[in-house]
């Protein structure tokens, strides 16, 4: 995984300064740490320092708890067990994991299969850590691709089992897990004593709630992809999730062409054409899944999908730095 602090912020500079509260004597605290292999930033605004830190620690514990269930690296996780039993037998899992798979399948249906947690059979082919030196053989890609099919993820509500119908199938929550964890951490923190507001930022998948330390509320600045360090505009993100897909550190390059770390389930090849996708909506998990989906669908189909959905907006930056937004995204300019 990437080194802790070297992750390049694709699109956002988050304007969440922890400043003294104006006459309210509230405490705003922030912790930066590595969770789920990524850089997390957790901010709490509370009655006092003790309560703010208690909330931050509870948020961290919740993310760690979820990581233990959904990690596909950890051989002890329930997810790894599902993968090991692919083609063999159904695995009974916690209701929480069962429900997450259920929602992931719903998004597959919604996106015509662009989003598919069974993309993970491609893990054996594509490595986005700089170790690949040549394009994989087309037959290998085709063989692994043939294992991707969300409709072969069989759920049984009676005993909460998940069954991957074919041998060689594999699921992974890379495109939805951080969003789910951010939602959950927020929910836990929000209900704690003396809490007024906060942010959970799971390396670009972020959600805000309640009072900000800034009198303008929680805002997110959008960086200009054409000019490093320049800000394009800003968005208010009060009680809102904002998620960006598009990680400049994880890609492969062959013949001068860059392939992103998102797999098109239709081809088994990484997507091309889009640099980053940002989704704004009230739910981090949905935003996370949709950002990945729009990457696969491409500019035209991706915008069509988002424009059909109420309360969900998006901003797409293409490989040639074209910026397009959904119909109701109101970007503010300075
Ligand atoms: P994100 O940064 O949220 O767009 O997630 C990217 C991660 O999602 C990748 O690193 C993979 O773990 C996973 N992934 C890749 N392609 C897909 C896909 N088509 N559907 C679901 N998950 C995917
Ligand atoms: Mg995602």
Helix content: 25-40%
Unreliable stretches covering 5 or more consecutive residues: 1-22
Spatial sequence of strands, sheet with the most strands: 2-3-7-8-11-14-15-16
Distance between the termini: 36 Å
Q: N-to-C SSE series?
A: EEEHHEHHEEHEEEEEEEEHEE
Task: Indicate the CATH topology.
Answer: T-fold
**What spatial form do the alpha-carbon principal axes imply?**
globular
Number of strands: 16
User: Which cofactors or ions or other ligands sit in this model?
Assistant: adenosine monophosphate, magnesium ion
Number of domains: 1
Radius of gyration, in angstroms, nearest whole number: 20 Å
CATH class: Alpha Beta
**What's the average pLDDT?**
89
CATH architecture assignment name: Roll
Taking the sheet with the most strands, its summary is: 8 strands, antiparallel
Number of helices: 6
> Per DSSP, what share of the residues sits in E-state strands of 2 or more residues?
25-35%
SS-derived structural category: alpha+beta
Task: Determine the CATH superfamily.
Answer: ApbE-like domains
Question: Which labels suit this protein?
Answer:
binds magnesium ion; T-fold; globular; alpha+beta; disordered N terminus; binds adenosine monophosphate; three-stranded antiparallel sheet; 334 residues
């Amino acid at each position: 995984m990437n080194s802790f602090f070297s992750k390049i912020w694709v699109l956002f500079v988050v304007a969440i300064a922890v400043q003294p509260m104006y006459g309210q004597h509230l405490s705003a605290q922030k912790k930066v740490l590595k969770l789920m292999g990524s850089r997390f930033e957790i901010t709490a605004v509370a009655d006092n320092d003790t309560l703010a830190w208690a909330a931050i620690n509870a948020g961290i514990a919740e993310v760690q708890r979820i990581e233990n269930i959904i990690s596909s690296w950890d051989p002890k996780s329930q997810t790894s067990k599902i993968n090991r039993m692919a083609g063999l037998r159904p695995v009974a899992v916690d209701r929480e994991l069962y429900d997450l798979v259920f929602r992931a399948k719903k998004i597959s249906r919604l996106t015509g299969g662009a989003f598919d947690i069974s993309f993970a059979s491609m893990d054996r082919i594509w490595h986005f850590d700089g170790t690949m030196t040549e394009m994989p053989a087309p037959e290998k890609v085709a063989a692994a691709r043939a294992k991707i099919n969300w409709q072969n993820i069989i759920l049984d509500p009676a005993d909460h089992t998940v069954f991957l119908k074919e041998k060689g199938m594999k699921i992974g929550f890379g495109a939805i897990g951080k969003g789910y964890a951010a939602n959950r951490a927020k929910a836990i923190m929000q209900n704690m004593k003396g809490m007024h507001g906060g942010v959970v930022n799971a390396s670009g998948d972020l959600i805000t709630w309640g009072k900000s330390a800034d009198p303008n509320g929680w805002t997110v600045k959008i960086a200009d992809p054409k000019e490093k360090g320049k800000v394009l505009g800003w968005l208010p993100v009060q009680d809102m999730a904002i998620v960006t897909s598009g990680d400049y550190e994880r890609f492969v390059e062959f013949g001068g062409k860059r392939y992103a770390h998102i797999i098109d389930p239709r081809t088994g090849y990484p997507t091309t054409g889009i640099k980053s996708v940002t989704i704004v909506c009230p739910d981090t998990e949905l935003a996370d899944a949709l950002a990945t989906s729009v990457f696969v669908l491409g500019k035209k189909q991706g915008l069509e999908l988002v424009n059909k959905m109420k309360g969900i907006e998006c901003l797409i930056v293409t490989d040639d730095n074209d910026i397009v937004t959904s119909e109701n995204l109101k970007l503010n300019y300075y």
